[in-house]
C-alpha cells in the first residue's frame, strides 16, 4: 500500500492506494497555507495510523526540485523555498515522494485513464490557468528544477496595436504574452474584456458561444487559434498521441472538440484520430497519479 496526498491551496486530500491503485480511507482537511509547522503536522496526523514502512506520495500544486527537495508554490506560501520532502520524511519517519499535481494528473491518465495504451501522453490542465505534464512509457518527465510540461509560459503572443489581435498581457511569471494569460477560465475573461469591454464570467461566455451568440465569437475564435497553436507545437515536439484534459474547462465537451479539431489541423502527423480529449479521472487524478510515482519523478537527460 501507499499513502497518498493531493495538496492544493484550499484542501489536502488523503487516501490509501492498494497495489491496484484503488483508493480507500479518503479524508480531507483545509490546507494550512501560512504555517510550515501546521502543514507538516496535518500530514503527520493523516499518516499516523499506518505502518511506518508505508511511503507517502504527494501531489502538490507547486514544483519540487528533484535534486534539492526544495519546493515552490504560488498558493501554499509556507512551503516556498523550504526542503519539504526532507521535512516530511523526518517528521513522519517514512519515505516521501513529491510530484507536481499536473504531472500526477498526466501520470494517472496515462496509466488508468484516457491515455492508457499510449506511449507518449501529454496531460493538459485548463483550469484557472494552464499547465501540463509529459509521461513517456509510464514515467513522468521532469527537467532541471522540477520543471517540465509548462506549455503556457513563454512570450508566444506578440505585442500588436491591432485592437482585434490577441493582447500580449503581463503574466504572473514575469513575461509578456504567455498563453497562461489567456488560456484558463480567467484568461477567457481577460480576452473577452479586451475585445468587448465587457466583464463576464467565463462560464457565461462559453454558454453564449455554445448557443451561437455573436458577442463571444471573436473571443473564442482567438482563444482557439492561440491555444491550438501552442498544443500543436507540443504534439510536434513530443510526439504525444493523446492529450487528456483536466481542470474546469474539461467539463465543456464542445470546447474540447473545437480545440481538438484546431490542434489536429495544425500538426505534422496526418490522418490522426482525436488527440485532445476529456480526462477520465478528474476527481481522483492527483491521488491516483501520486500512487504511481516510483521513488520520485524522472529527470530528463
Automatic annotation (TrEMBL):
Q: Which PANTHER family match?
A: D-ALLOSE KINASE-RELATED, ROK (REPRESSOR, ORF, KINASE) FAMILY
Q: Which organism is it from?
A: Gluconacetobacter tumulisoli
Write down the superkingdom of origin: Bacteria
Q: Which residues cross the membrane?
A: none
Q: Which GO terms describe its molecular function?
A: hexokinase activity
**Pfam families (UniProt xref):** ROK
Tell me which InterPro entries the record gives: ATPase_NBD, ROK, ROK_cs
Protein name (Swiss-Prot/TrEMBL): ROK family protein
